[in-house]
Amino acid sequence: MSIDSLKSRIPDFAKDVRLNLSTLGSDETLTPQQKYGLMVACGIASRNPAVRAALEAEAAQHLTPAALSAAKSAAAIMGMNNVYYRFTHLVSNDEYRTLPAKLRMNVIGNPGVDKVDFELWSLAVSAINGCGMCMDSHEAVLKKAEVPTEVVQTAVRFAAIIQSAAIALEAAEAA
Fold it and tell me: Do residues 11 and 168 touch, judged by C-beta distance below 8 A?
């Protein structure tokens, strides 16, 4: 499966989603590794098997095995961190923020790819998962690395498009 086959499954009520999916491959704001890593990480975070499979298939021909693994790691580690840190941020009891997380997250420090790429992927997955604390943290790292605002915005736009594809497919399947 590919992005084209995924687009063909998007129903007419979501034609804007189809059009937005068309823009992913041609985006020139990101490096190829950033772009295809976003597809993998966000595809996994969408929790939709068809979206995940299509985007991984599309990305596989553009990513090294190390980059593919790192993109999957970003989705997995953010799945954990987003739950934990969203809880500590949203719960009224401030005491939880003072406790050590006691979560292993070594991959963040040594992802096996450029740190900026991993941070972009982590930011996008955090946007899908709705963790404001994690989004702030990853955006700050990217700004410190002097990543342009347009690159950060593009990563989040990829997350939005990919998540909307998952929602459109689920709605079509439920009908």
Answer: yes
